[in-house]
Amino acid sequence: MRKIVIIGLAILVGGMGGLIFLSNRNQPISDASQVAAPVTDAPPAKPAVPVQSLFNKRLYSTTEPTSLWVIANKQSPLAKGYTPDNLRSPAVKLRLATTNEQMQIQSDAAEGLEKLFAAAEQANLLLTLSSAYRSEALQAQFYNSYIARDGVAKADTYSARPGTSEHQTGLAADIIPRNDACHLEVCFGDLAEGKWLAANAYKFGFTLRYPLGKEAITGYSYEPWHIRFVGVALAAELHQSGQTMEEFFTVR
Questions:
Q1: Which residue has the higher pLDDT, 247 or 25?
Q2: CA-based R_g, the chain, Å
Q3: Does the N terminus or the C terminus of the chain have fewer Cβ atoms within 10 A?
């Protein structure tokens, strides 16, 4: 008899549980974590706008002869007889005596050149300054000698006419290996010294002024030995973009 009562109670409890379960199936879910997120028609996020370069191209003049960024080329001559007033001989290996005008360069450029030479030496590469500042009179001597040898048309492809040379700004330098290999020749670009200069000159404020493939823009043939001081900021911009000064400043 006791067994029958227990079984009956179990059946009764089970039945009530089933009724409660069926009842709960029709009730709304109260747990917010189980509610599906509503579908919205919000537009997709817009792509981030690229950050524009903050480089100030008007920081220095490209026409004033005393400017760090002056562009001296066939179309833009320097003032007649211009001479920089802050020339000095850098503390690097020189091809000529310190008293020779070609061994002079503007002070800021000299400092950059000293750091460049020191870094090259750390890389086991020994360099020599072949030529830096040239007066208008000295450039005339060089140019006229090239005309006598090769004619005007040929000379104009590799030598600046008096008054249009970067060397007259006191900001340009011709670099050669200490052993004098490929002295002012295109093969310098294939030497370890030339490759290092092309890859590292910008770190010290210099740009390779007459690069390969830019002859129609610069007006001169490829010169892997010729570097020009423009300051570290601009040198980095030119190196990254692969542009010449004419391209970067949109001038000819």
A1: 247
A2: 37
A3: N
DSSP-derived pairing of the beta strands 105-106 and 172-177: unpaired
Domain ranges of the chain: 87-248
Q: What is the 8-class DSSP label of residue 45?
A: P
What distance in Å separates the CA atoms of residue 242 and residue 64, rounded to the nearest whole number? 24
What tokens does 185 get? 């020749």
Cα distance between residue 134 and residue 84, in whole Å: 10
CB 89 within 8 A of CB 101: no
What's 87-248's CATH class? alpha beta
Q: How many residues does the chain have?
A: 252
pLDDT per position as a tens digit, 104-134: 999 999 999 999 999 999 999 999 999 999 9
